[in-house]
Each structure stands twice: as C-alpha cells, then as structure tokens.
Design a protein that fits this description.
The structure is a single chain. This protein has 187 residues and is of the alpha+beta class. It is built from three helices and twelve strands, in the order βββββββαβββββαα. The strands form four sheets. A four-stranded mixed β-sheet has the order 7-4-10-9, sandwiched between helices. A three-stranded antiparallel β-sheet has the order 1-2-3, with no helix packed on it. Strands 6-5-12 form a three-stranded antiparallel β-sheet.
Length: 187
C-alpha cells in the first residue's frame, strides 16, 4: 500500500466558511514524483440518528437544503461540537431538532462521507423507544417539520427515491446490517 500513498509537500490555507474551511495540499505522486494540488474541505465530524419510537416508527425531519433547493426527508443529525463526543452529540441533535429523547442508544456505524475531499467522519446512532418531550430547539438556520414513518414505509421511500440524502441512506444500510439484513429493529 505504500506505493499508493502520495507524499505531502505543502499545505495552503483557504477560507473559513463556518461549517467547513478550505485548503489545498501539494503532494508528490508515489511512483513518478510529479506534483499535484488537491483541494480539501475541513469539516467537523457529523452524527445522524435513526430514532425508533416504542411502536417502531422512525422519527424524521423535513427541511429545505440550499444545495439542491429542495425540501428533503431526513433523519435528525448535525455537527459534533468542538470538544464534544459523537455519542453526546447524537442525543443532543435528536432533542434539538425533534423534541424526542431516548434512554437506549447504540452505535450503528461510522463512514467517511467523501474521502476524496473531506477528512471527517459521520457517526450513526440508533435511539430506541424515542418519545417526544416537546422541547425541540432548532437553530436559527433550521425550519423543521417532524414526521413519523413505519419501517415498511421507510423501505419504500428508500426504493423509490423519496429518501435520497446519501448520509440518510447509509444510516438505513447500517440499521439493516445490524438487524441481520432487514430494515427492522435490531435485537
């Protein structure tokens, strides 16, 4: 594998955009030594939450996304705050965005969202027996609508593309793997 790794030569800071910063990395080709400049987005880690109610409905949020200029059906999630552990960020995000809380939490998986240009990780958690508390506190950049869906409805929405956010799709892949290949509550 050492013949695949590029040798870093220089890094150049870019612009801080609040939720990410840009930079470029100059690196030498591992076989020819030729230099190439790579663009990098520095982002904090993210969490997302598959929250199941006691009757196995999934807690979703609908929200507008600037990148697509569309309203998307997503699971709760967001940035891990500096100094915060992902396992603390997940319950915080669930309650802030939906007003739901859960006593039982399980990690489902971790992925690199886009390793070509990002170095952060997405941590996915399962919240079991989630119940509403009525204390949703979305931040000033969020307008959210909470929606509950059964697991068969989720499977259909994944199949027909109604759920098309890649990080949400991977969360349900993690859930399916944890449940032995089906989209159901893991044992």
């Amino acid at each position: 594998m050492s013949d695949l790794r590029w040798r870093r030569l220089r890094e150049h800071p870019g612009v801080d955009h609040r939720v990410f910063a840009t930079r470029t990395v100059d690196a030498a080709h591992p076989r020819t030594g030729a230099e190439h400049r790579f663009s990098v987005l520095d982002c904090g880690d993210w969490v997302n939450v598959v929250a199941l109610t006691p009757d196995d409905r999934v807690v979703f949020v609908r929200q507008w996304r600037a990148g697509t200029d569309l309203v998307h059906l997503e699971i709760p999630g967001g940035l891990v705050d500096p100094g915060e552990a992902p396992e603390a960020a997940a319950p915080r995000e669930l309650e802030e965005e939906t007003g739901y809380v859960a006593a039982t939490w399980r990690p489902l998986g971790r992925v690199a969202p886009n390793p070509a240009i990002q170095g952060n990780r997405l941590h996915t958690y399962l919240a079991l027996d989630a119940t509403p508390t009525g204390v949703a506190r979305p931040d000033g950049g969020e307008v959210l609508e909470v929606e509950l869906r059964t697991l068969p409805e989720v499977a259909a929405a994944l199949r027909d593309g109604a759920i098309d956010h890649a990080l949400v799709v991977v969360a349900f892949a993690h859930l399916s793997l944890a449940a032995g290949g089906t989209l159901s509550r893991p044992r």
